[in-house]
Design a protein that fits this description.
Structural class: alpha+beta
Order of helices and strands: HHHHEHEHEEEHH
Strand content: 15-25%
CATH architecture of the largest domain: 2-Layer Sandwich
Number of domains: 2
Distance between the termini: 39 Å
Low-confidence stretches: none
Radius of gyration: 17 Å
Helix content: 40-55%
Shape: globular
Mean pLDDT: 92
Length: about 200
């Protein structure tokens, strides 16, 4: 049973790194690719993340750090532009497992959910609106833009997930490994600074 989960995790990790898939879709595609039943026990996100880290170490160690830095610098630009909405970076760019195929996920914590849309309009930013599942299973608005990342020479998806201000407290609770699941501009600047001296 564990060996099947490990195989699913390894296959999903390749899709996450090489195609930029999120963990859920990558697990489902891995099941299909491996010819396993839809009811097979799936690895949890912690197992997928570990497999992603192993895949990056094996196959992308020479390129991934620079790609991650480029995405983090782009994310910082957006955190600074959207400061009034209490933005926090999450996802692979925050966790350090992002590659050039990864999107940037920023959570905004607003007093008024529509304020973020108005703020983007005021900045002259064109965006698409969709509904996605939030970090507590609730439905939240996602404002998506595609912006050019000069350092990578390609366009990157930036997804702004709009939460209520009251959700901010719960959003900063450490995960099972004691890590913060997201960080603000100050925390991201610290990550960039620390990485520069590694």
């Amino acid at each position: 049973m564990e060996s099947v989960k490990e195989e699913i995790a390894a296959t999903a990790a390749r899709m996450v790194v090489e195609e930029g898939l999120e963990y859920g879709p990558a697990k489902r595609r891995a099941l299909k690719q491996l010819g396993l039943a839809g009811r097979s026990a799936l690895p949890d996100n912690e197992q997928i993340e570990q497999a992603v880290e192993e895949y990056i170490a094996l196959f992308c160690a020479d390129t991934q750090p620079l790609e991650l830095r480029a995405l983090r610098e782009l994310a910082l630009t957006w955190l600074e532009r959207l400061q009034r909405f209490r933005p926090h970076l999450g996802g692979a760019v925050w966790r350090g497992t992002a590659t050039r195929h990864s999107d940037i996920f920023i959570q905004l914590f607003c007093d008024d959910p529509k304020a973020a849309e108005i703020g983007l309009i005021d900045l002259g930013v064109r965006f698409e609106v969709a509904s996605v599942t939030g970090f507590q299973g609730e439905t939240v608005d996602a404002l998506s833009v595609h912006v050019r990342c000069q350092a990578l020479g390609e366009f990157v998806g930036v997804h702004l997930l709009v939460y209520d201000f009251d959700d901010l407290r719960g959003a900063l609770k450490p995960d099972a490994r004691g890590r913060r699941p997201r960080g603000d501009a100050v925390a991201l600047r610290n990550l960039l600074h620390d990485a520069a001296y590694e």
